[in-house]
């Protein structure tokens, strides 16, 4: 009698698990969160076990934003913005030393030139005197000290904005004294270089921040007093730029420091934007007054 039973076909052996992101790679390690295989490239060390890169990203999106008392994003590690600005200043200084390049003349600030080349209000902060190494050395050290303190508290974005506004404020301060009679005035054609406006802006911002934290601002006030005296004793110091940067940093820093907790995000945007508008308007009014004076002189 014929055997009518069909012979059973054994199941094909299952292949090794593969990474969903890289199907060509066998992956025997599974994510502790979702259970999917993860190849070595997609594995991330977690507090307990291994997680895949997708789960790590999802956890980061769902994690609450941790901020400082001033509303800056809490970050570990070195002050990236501070070191970046220092690096840019050092590279720019080396380019100033290249014969025939004309790097200094291309980016320095002079009151008359700022009317047609407004980028000079900012780029001047990355130039320094090539005949006095102490100039760049002091500014970079001061930037390092203040940046180590302010950048973690304010967050990278707001600290970068503070630096830029302080630099512009220093140039505007220098501009406002252009053409004035007496010892306080400067020539419309007088050039200036240096990150001092930016540095003094950071000093100014530290005053309200220290007050907000309940710490003494005595050392900063002493430093400002000494530099204020030097500005009138040493003729090569552009104290007008120091003053402009100081006022700008003090105003923006006060807004950052004393903003109510619920309004820190809004004020963090509105205060710098408002300060930029003020600086631009101050420069426009000054240039219009210069133009008016020039036209009046031609009419005689």
From TrEMBL:
Localization in the cell: Membrane
Stretches assigned to coiled coil: none
InterPro entries named among the record's database cross-references: Peptidase_S54_rhomboid_dom, Rhomboid-like_sf, Rhomboid_protease_S54
GO biological-process terms attached to the record: proteolysis
GO molecular function: peptidase activity
The keyword Phosphoprotein belongs to this UniProt entry's keyword annotation: no
Membrane association type: Multi-pass membrane protein
Keyword tags: Hydrolase, Membrane, Protease, Transmembrane, Transmembrane helix
Domain of life of the native organism: Bacteria
Membrane-crossing segments per the record: 80-101, 121-145, 157-180, 192-210, 217-235, 266-285
Primary location group: membrane
Residues covered by the Peptidase S54 rhomboid domain: 116-254
CDD domains: Bbox2 (cd19756)
Disordered: region residues: 1-21
The family this protein is said to belong to: Belongs to the peptidase S54 family.
Listed name of the protein: Rhomboid family intramembrane serine protease
Source organism of the structure: Myceligenerans indicum
């Amino acid at each position: 009698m014929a055997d009518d039973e069909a012979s059973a076909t054994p199941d094909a052996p299952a292949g090794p698990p593969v990474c969903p992101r890289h199907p060509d790679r066998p992956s025997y390690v599974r994510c502790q969160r979702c259970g999917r295989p993860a190849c070595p490239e997609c594995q991330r060390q977690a507090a307990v076990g291994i997680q895949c890169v997708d789960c790590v990203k999802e956890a980061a999106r769902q994690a609450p934003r941790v901020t400082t008392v001033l509303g800056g994003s809490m970050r570990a590690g070195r002050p990236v913005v501070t070191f970046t600005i220092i690096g840019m200043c050092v590279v720019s200084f080396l380019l100033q030393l290249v014969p025939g390049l004309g790097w200094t003349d291309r980016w320095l600030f002079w009151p008359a030139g700022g009317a047609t080349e407004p980028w000079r209000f900012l780029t001047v902060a990355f130039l320094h005197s090539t005949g006095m190494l102490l100039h760049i050395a002091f500014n970079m050290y001061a930037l390092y000290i203040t940046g180590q303190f302010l950048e973690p508290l304010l967050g990278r974005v707001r600290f970068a904005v503070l630096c830029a506004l302080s630099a512009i404020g220093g140039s505007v301060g220098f501009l406002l004294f252009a053409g004035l009679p007496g010892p306080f005035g400067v020539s419309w054609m007088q050039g200036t270089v240096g990150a001092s406006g930016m540095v003094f802006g950071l000093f100014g911002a530290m005053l309200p921040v220290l007050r907000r934290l309940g710490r003494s601002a005595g050392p900063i006030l002493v430093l400002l007093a000494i530099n204020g005296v030097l500005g009138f004793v040493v003729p090569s110091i552009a104290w007008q730029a120091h003053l402009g940067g100081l006022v700008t940093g003090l105003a923006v820093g006060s807004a950052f420091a004393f903003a109510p907790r619920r309004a820190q995000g809004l004020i963090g945007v509105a205060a710098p934007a408002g300060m930029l508008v003020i600086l631009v308007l101050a420069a426009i009014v000054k240039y219009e007054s210069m133009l008016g004076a020039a036209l009046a002189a031609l009419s005689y």
